[in-house]
Design a protein that fits this description.
The chain is α/β, with parallel strands linked by helices. 31% of the residues lie in helices and 25% in strands. A seven-stranded mixed sheet has the order 7-6-19-18-20-21-22, with helices on both faces. A five-stranded parallel sheet has the order 9-8-10-13-14, with helices on both faces. Helix 4 (82-91) crosses helix 5 (117-133), helix 4 (82-91) crosses helix 6 and helix 13 packs across helix 15. The structure holds adenosine-5'-monophosphate-propyl ester. Adenosine-5'-monophosphate-propyl ester (PRX) binds at residues 268, 313-315, 390-393, 415-420, 441, 504-506, 519, 521-522, 528, 533.
Length: 651
């Protein structure tokens, strides 16, 4: 296949602007601009058509969309099953023996595992029967605390098959984090593993799981044998996956679920210390997972799609499980670290399996950029034809490096904006349409409506910044609520501009008259640390658990590679002196409470925090300090003298 050497076009304003080549357009599922207008004319009809075309329903819906602010429903009274759509449909076709999952373990000398659609189907059916035999019923919540091994997709789909609601917890989260989520979800069963490999070492996951299930309603812990590390099995509670699966019947009837029934709960950080359980439904989520996977990544049957996100995040749910499997695609799953045993491990994998579509986070790209192009240059990456990014704003240097050194100047870079709450991508360029603009995510996915508003709720003009919102009809993939917390749902998303406008908490700028949008980052106290979503309040809660801490405030500081990192300002109790030992103790405290991703980059010990006369911590000032910006007006402060002291300490 010959490719045009140069497909870069500069726009009149001297910005980079890339358009798809004729070859890309020809291959793409959508290449005609008119799709946007067509969907816009009647988004409800558009999604209705897509839901029917892409999925097999046991019973057709009677009403496509219903809106009762701040709630909306899609495909009302329709009956559907996620596992049936991801598996049964394919095993009835030639795809039966197609690879569904290619799994690469971290230890390079361990063999690759390939699961065909039929293998996956069989394992999912068996596990569904196992869950039933343990008393799981439709609507029960099941915790999944697994690393990136195929058992994670098997467990999710097995839950979906019997109508149980899965709640996956990131395997690098601590036992304490697991516990608070399992308690909130009132989970009955936890699926975990003995351990897994991370940078050549075995992580003792089961020990964390044991901490996590203590004092919860969890009756059974199903343990996958992955790393073979010695673990403690609690009699009567813990059971080995293999033993249960050996006896399990091979077929389990898929449960016909109401389209609006919960498919999963995924906990994510908000602005308070308590993570919220984001609820996703079945039919709406599946529709958008399927079509965004297909159109954004131009997913075809001969593709090998690698989404590097961990399954513990929404990106893993939608693009390392549901989206591609609904399309009958082949996904690559890698267990370990990107730099093990060397920093070219990812490229070795791309070359080994001929990965065609590669989707990762800007943080990873910036890390790879630092290590230098000599690493990707050692490998033949010509199988790649499309690149994607997600999770945080991408800077132009990283975008261009990705485009040139990973994509070889051939592959479009699809920068997808979305959130745990939105379930699937919402704002990005489509590969057959473009344009692909570094630092600009793109346009609203067909059938979705976004706007950018100023503080008063007025739409902003092109080139101006404001707050990104979504308008009705809301994407069928959007959250259906916050688990057991309708007040928080209403307050967080439907309060800023009223209950008819979904507030994203993201800053954005209209880029051009085409409707392209540049995202500028969160405007609340949610941090994106190496693409991971964390709240400053969670880190504060962890720190104040230490008996030496009187008070603290955590803010996000910009970081060259990770995007943002937490910086903690800590006031110690009287009589306690700052020390490096205490600093490491506090860091360990955060790791224990949340996990290594939340580790503060710096702990600033101080006598006082800047406060208003009413005693409120002025975070604005701390934020300005860590960003190296001017602090501005300090006259309203009760203790303006702290600012100078903190300035010295922050450095
Ligand atoms: O601030 C936005 C940022 O990530 C937030 C959502 O985080 P989370 O729920 O963990 O989901 C991440 C993966 C979908 C958003 O509010 N974000 C996500 N994608 C982008 C982004 N910021 C800029 N550009 C993106 N492409």
């Amino acid at each position: 296949m010959s490719e045009p050497k140069k497909w870069v076009k500069e726009d009149p304003n001297n910005r980079f602007l890339f358009w798809p080549t004729e070859i890309m357009k020809k291959k793409a599922w959508v290449s005609d601009e008119s799709i946007y207008k067509e969907a816009e004319k009647n988004p409800i009809a558009f999604w209705g058509k897509k839901a029917k075309e892409g999925l097999e329903w046991f019973k057709a819906w009677t009403e496509t969309y219903q809106w009762d602010p701040p709630y909306y429903k899609w495909f009302l009274n329709g009956k559907i099953n996620a596992s049936y759509n991801a598996l049964d449909r394919h095993v009835k076709t030639w795809r039966k023996n197609k690879a569904a999952i290619i799994w690469e373990p971290e230890p390079p000398d361990e063999p690759t595992r390939v699961l065909t659609y039929n293998d996956l189907y069989r394992e999912v059916n068996k596990l569904a029967n196992v869950l039933k035999s343990l008393g799981v019923q439709k609507g029960d919540r099941i915790g999944i605390y697994l690393p990136m091994i195929p058992e994670v997709q098997i467990a999710m789909l097995a839950c979906a098959r019997i109508g149980a609601i899965h709640s996956v917890v990131f395997s690098a989260f601590s036992g304490e984090s697991l516990k608070s989520r399992m308690k909130d979800a009132e989970a009955k069963i936890l699926v975990t593993a003995d351990g897994y490999y991370r940078r050549g070492k075995i992580v003792d996951l089961k020990a964390n799981a044991d901490l996590g299930v203590a004092d919860t309603d969890i009756k059974h812990v199903i343990v996958v044998k992955r790393a073979g590390n010695p673990i403690r099995m609690t009699k009567g509670r813990d059971v080995w996956w293999d033993q249960l699966m050996a006896k399990a019947p091979l077929y389990c009837e898929p449960e016909p679920m109401d389209s609006e029934d919960m498919l999963f709960i995924l906990y994510t950080s908000g602005t308070t210390g308590k993570p919220k359980g984001i609820i996703h439904d079945t039919g709406g989520y599946l529709t958008v997972a399927l079509w965004t996977a297909k159109w954004d990544f131009d997913l075809h049957d001969d593709d090998i799609f690698w989404c590097t996100a961990d399954i513990g995040w929404i990106t893993g749910h939608t693009y390392a499980c549901y989206g591609p499997l609904l399309n009958g695609a082949t996904i690559l799953v890698y267990e370990g670290a990107l730099n093990f045993p060397q920093v070219d491990r990812w490229w070795e994998i791309v070359e080994k399996f001929g990965v065609t579509i590669f989707y990762t986070a800007p943080t990873a790209i910036r890390m790879l950029l630092r290590w230098g192009e000599e690493w990707p240059e050692k490998h033949n990456l010509r199988s790649l034809r499309l690149l994607g990014t997600v999770g945080e704003p991408i800077n132009q240097d990283a975008w261009m490096w990705y485009f040139n050194h990973i994509g070889g100047g051939r592959c479009p870079v699809i920068d997808t904006w979305w959130q745990t709450e939105t379930g699937a991508t919402l704002i990005n360029a489509l590969p057959g349409i473009g344009p692909f603009i570094p630092t600009v995510a793109g346009r609203s996915f067909p059938g979705t409506i976004h706007d950018i508003l100023d503080e008063t709720g007025q739409p902003v003009k092109i080139g101006e910044g404001g707050y990104l919102v979504q308008k009705s009809p809301f994407s069928p993939g959007m959250l259906r609520g916050v688990y057991k917390d309708p007040e928080r749902y209403a307050a967080q998303y439907w309060n800023t501009y009223g209950d008819k406008i979904y507030y994203t908490s993201d800053g954005a700028i209209w880029w051009d008259e085409l409707g392209n949008i540049r995202l500028t980052g969160r405007v609340d106290d949610v941090m994106k640390v190496a693409g991971h979503r964390l709240s400053t309040a969670e880190v504060e809660n962890a720190l104040t658990q230490n008996s030496s801490v009187a008070e603290c405030a955590v803010v996000a500081a910009p970081h060259e590679v990770k995007g943002e990192v937490p910086i903690a300002f800590v006031v110690l109790k009287q009589g306690i002196n700052p020390s490096t030992e205490l600093e490491s103790e506090l860091i360990q405290q955060v790791i224990r409470a949340i996990g290594p991703t939340a580790k503060p980059a710096k702990i600033v010990m101080t006598d006082a925090l800047p406060k208003t006369r009413s005693g409120k911590i002025m975070r604005r000032i701390l934020k300005a300090l860590v960003k190296g910006e001017t602090v501005g007006d300090t006259t309203t402060l009760m203790n303006p003298e702290t600012v100078e002291d903190l300035k010295q300490k922050v450095g």
